[in-house]
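cron nightly-structures :: item 1 of 1
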Amino acid sequence: MSKCKNNLTISIVALLSIILLITIPESSLGQESKKSKWIYIDTTLAFTTDVPISAAREKTLNAARQRAVKKAIPAEVLIASALNDRIFEKGNDVEEQTAYSIFSILSTTGHIVDEKILYSKVEKLEKNIYHYRVKLKASVAEPSGERNPALSLEVGVNKNFLKDGDELQITVKSSADGYIYLFNFLPDNSVVLIFPNALCQNNFIKSNTIFEIPSKKEKERGIKYRVRCHPESEMTVETILAVFCINPIAGIDKFVRLKEGTVTFSAGDESFVQFQKWLAEVPLSQRVEKAVQVHIYR
């Protein structure tokens, strides 16, 4: 069971309204992989004028990132088994919002450990269509080691469809003793660490034992996780990624900054790279990941 310091009610905004910011000092992550390489990508996508420019930027940037990984380390990537629950579609937009996250997070071929957005703007407008262009410089590193087939992880939520304000319950179970980290990938693919946090720091789990977040004792203390829908959307699709590691990740406590009651729907472009860099430091043989999606509607 995880232990908490305070008796609070916690709301989740885009999955947590208790906001955990990831700050990763260069010195704490070690040196960039010797196998990393810089890739230059120039990507343009077309959108109808009813698509907000901010959404067009996110999708074009994500497409550029995906192309960078594929160009740096060409390989067939099998990721279907990593998605614990099926994707419930509500039009193609759901697929577009989540497909890149799943590919990028769970790719065993490479991780973007640094990037520079050289150019990002609307370039062309034709009647009901406009083009968005992104020029990206990305450093892609190969992960070390090979997957350990003996490691497995199960992740579940109380419901895949939740109404704005509903409580969220997460359960995890691993095949070995180790440490669990839960990340929330927001619709723009920025990343927030939701567990462990400043209130609940004990993330050690035993093999073949269901671990609840929040636990029964935490709920008795008033700790709850509530979902929030993005104010500009009728439905928000988010991905919870569980990362299980045999050993604790050094310096993880330095990454987390907790601000109670703060609302955020984006952690910024840099959080995506910070997460990728953090994940690349952990050998494949020492970790396993599993993703589950949550649909939040009004």
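cron nightly-structures :: done
The radius of gyration is 19 Å.
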